[in-house]
Amino acid sequence: MHSRRAVSLLRRAGPSVVRPASTLPLPGDGAGGRLRFDDARLAFDGVPTADLVRALCVFQACGVGPLVAHGERLLAAARRVLGDRAVAAVVRPTFFAHFVAGEDEAEVRGAVEGLRSRGVGAILDYAAEADVEDAAPGAAPPPSSRVYDYAGEAACDAARDIFAGAIEAVARVAPEDGFAAIKVTALGQPELLERWSSGLVETARLFGGERLPTSDRGAFEAAWFGLFTESAASRAAAAETFNALEAARARAPGAAVRVADVISVKRMRELSALCREAGPFAAAALTEEEGALADAMLDRLDGLAALAAARGVRVMVDAEHTYFQPAIDHICLELMRKYNRGGGAVVHNTYQCYLTATAAKLERHAALANREGWHFGAKLVRGAYLHLERARAARLGYADPVHATIEDTHACFDAAVAFALARPDVRSGRSAANVLVASHNRASVERALDVMANEGLDARTSKVYFGQLLGMADHLTFTLGAHGYRAYKYVPYGSLYEVMPYLLRRAHENGDLLSSNVAGERALLVGELARRARAALGV
Length: 539
Hints:
Blueprint: H1 5-9, H2 40-43, H3 49-62, H4 65-69, H5 71-82, H6 84-99, H7 105-116, E1 121-126, H8 153-173, E2 179-182, H9 190-206, H10 217-227, H11 232-251, H12 265-272, H13 280-284, H14 288-311, E3 314-317, H15 325-339, E4 347-352, H16 358-372, E5 378-381, H17 386-396, H18 406-421, H19 424-427, E6 435-438, H20 442-455, E7 464-469, H21 474-482, E8 487-493, H22 500-509, H23 516-537
Parallel strand pairs: 1-2, 1-8, 2-3, 3-4, 4-5, 5-6, 6-7, 7-8
């Protein structure tokens, strides 16, 4: 159930960016002119010692393998045996305090103002989560995946109001550099998104290749009636589809336009009844009831995008599981076509680089924006659902959608960043933010800074942003902010038990203390605590 307090707490709290940041003199550049991300004093300037101790304890707890692997079951058992109050007494001052801004207005406002004082912006992110899929039989369950509970259309309307409150808060406090995060599964039935995504995939397969010539009306209609019955309804659909193709070609002369790109949800449903054979396309089409729910979801998203455009706020649409993502991509493209005109990008889609299909999709969407004349907004991430995706692929017998090695994922991410930062829309210095580089990996951040330098992109005036999660990779965020880069923290908020799955996922991500990212951050914490101890003792 969505928190009612989440709406009220956003009435006045909101993100902003204030520069300069640190009260300390900035260190010199590192080797090769790169920023130094190993200066613990700069990274933790102004952070109370008690918070550093808490952070170290949280990271240590995340290193206890059985605790992380079975965290969800242990938490459920503790709630049954000890009760919610006792569990909250342990979790609230530790994991919750470290990874979440708070659950009431004063807590969120304090977190945002603390970031602003250090030159770092905040992206408000309602972090309620629920898991809708179990692990493969016999396997340990994956960390809870961020999919909202579906409790009816009223709950979706309540989530819309929460997101609208976040947009309004950003508009008041950060009208030029504000961001708000949106999760599509909060605004409609997750199972509907899965069905819709299947329909889009089957539409692309049905109309793929050379099956339907798109440049000659006669040849198009002849091929069309090989797929669909010859009737008045089918002839009308053929004419409407070809006219839509013509209109798309007129918007982008010389571009290759796919039939699947101009088939609406309603048209898919109508065509499924006209198929000569009852194949996968007919089975995947939404029913009339599902179509109405899809329209309601689109209305909520369109309303939020319209509000953001009117208030001068950017929205970031979070990526989700691969079986939801085709529908989310489809929605984002439609919203970007409508709202990413004129002044810049309002809507930003998220691209998960641990997926093998991401590079081609990123290039296809960017090319589409160039051809059609709208601003391409992107958030680049490695991804958050690896364990679930692989378990589901193994269980259902389809190809693993994830890169085979972590090195392949790193390469995909770095190539995506280089591609996005070299795009003319970024170099032109337009007013809208076009790219958010969301990474906790120091090497990737350094490579992004190298690309910026090579492309002549200024830290303060370019539309390139860097983002890390609250409670993670502070040495990256605050060093970037101190040097004038547009650095942001994703700032989750919500009541304790709403955000518990989010906390479990953060624990899992920080679980490998041998990884370079976590081990490096832990070493900086230990070093800063040791420095403060020596200073206190006068040694």
